[in-house]
Amino acid sequence: MKGRGTWGLALGFVLSAGCSDAAKGGDASASAKPRESAKASDPATWERHSVGGASAKFPKKPESKPQTIKRPEGDVKVEMLVVEGDDGNVYSLVASDYESELNPQAALDTVKTSWKSVKDKTLTEPKPVELAGLPGREISFTAKMPLGGRQRTFVDAKNGRIYTVDVVSNERMDPAVIEGFLGSLQIEQPK
Q1: Domains along the chain with CATH numbers
Q2: Which of 5, 18, 54, 67 has the most beta carbons within 10 angstroms of its beta carbon?
Q3: In 101-127, which positions are buried (b, 16+ CB within 10 angstroms) versus exposed (e)?
Q4: Taking the model in full, what pTM does it have?
């Protein structure tokens, strides 16, 4: 998979949660990948990397993709870690700082609507999840190419932050690896 094209999918959700003029969507194309080693496929052995008050375990060192989105309502500072694993999956962690309180329900309602820019997709109904006392949603998706993945999003309404962790793949997805990555997310509560 060409991971750079799928970064737009991960970033597209975060930006659409209040950033209507942000670029959305992405393109991924297949490429042959060798089967990874047992250690590389075990999230328990991966290294933890942090961004914007959150951390997750990645199969190798992720690339940092910080940016600021200008909006009339105020700027959004977006910090993203992303890497394509040897398994062909693209793993990402995004922390968005809105610098003001958020309406948690409105932010979480965008989980499903943010995927409207991806053509020929199938979405599961967002499932409520919680982490560190923060409300969240999980969604699974498949799209044209074939492309699929899972995403978890959490809203820290009081501190104006949205955290998103996801895996995007056009290869056979190992449920244990996907769950291991998504489940490795840790959020540090600001004091």
Answers
A1: 3-187 (3.40.1000.10)
A2: 54
A3: ebebeebbebbbebbebbeeeebeebe
A4: 0.78
